[in-house]
Design a protein that fits this description.
Length: 365
Amino acid sequence: MKKSLLYLLLALPILVHAEPAKQWSPEKANEWYAKQPWPIGANYVPASAINQLEMWQAETYDPKRIDLELGWAESLGFNTMRVFLHDIPWKTDSDAYLKRIDGFLTICEKHKIRPMFVFFDSVWNPVVKAGKQPEPRPFVHNSGWVQSPGAEILKDPEHFDSLKPYVYGVIHHFRNDDRIFAWDLFNEPNNDNGGRFTETEAKDKFAKVLILLKKTFEWAREAEPSQPISSGVWNGDLKKMDEFDHFQLENSDIINFHIYSNLEKTKERVEILKRYHRPLICTEYMARPEGSTFEAILPYFAEQKIGAYNWGFVNGKSQTIFPWDSWTKEYKGEPELWFHDIFRHDGTPYKQDEVDLIRSLTKPN
């Protein structure tokens, strides 16, 4: 073999190896966003599921209920929903999990909805197991929601790379699927759960979560999705950002944020985030007693073309009509003022005027 040919063959792997995908430029992100309809929807788990694990496990996946409820979403003019995945169904049977996700996307497409999928979540119960999930605690907000990954994995960074096939596998499988709006890699990674679950949280949780957060962005970039990736900031005072906030904002393609405050504070947060010159998506808002209502916030988001995902959709096993303080304060029945959610279990609106407002903002011009 001639030396020149030998050198060419040896160099070939280097020549064909692609550069790892990089964060979208602000220009690319804004160009992409300009082609999208104004994103409006809700954070979604079916009324039949107490948490994201029950939603996706084979034994409790409920496509009929999902189809029914997404029909209600379509009736509002919603075009997207934020949907939490979980790592356990992937470990149980990755092929079957991908088929369920694909089936869910088929239902979404039927109702003209393109979801944003969330991979990991630091919020609520860190002890999580496959199989039958607990029944709701009466009158308690989100009493059965679980973290992903659970403390069993999070306590040891040596286990983190076992999660790469899940993140990479899902994104790579659907990387060119137009039915997906975007990827949200990690929900509220630096949330301390208000001091709850201190006995069962992973030791030095935040230091470990930060490692996993950074790895998750690397894995997502390696999968080369055509859709944007992000992770949402949620801390109350973005004038005093921590290491999590800086990393999330400086590595996301689109700016993803949460706020459950009145219009004045919402505008303040938006002004801080505008300096990144990227599309703004509010992936959590709407807590009526906090002043974050559809009437107060949604017209502003529509005017600014800020994506809007309220928390809660149908009153069901998640029980998010009850406020956060239901973890410590006893409630004995339905609160007069719902905290979250739009519809009752049968599809009847909680407040018809809210439904009318949403429809007025989503109807074609």
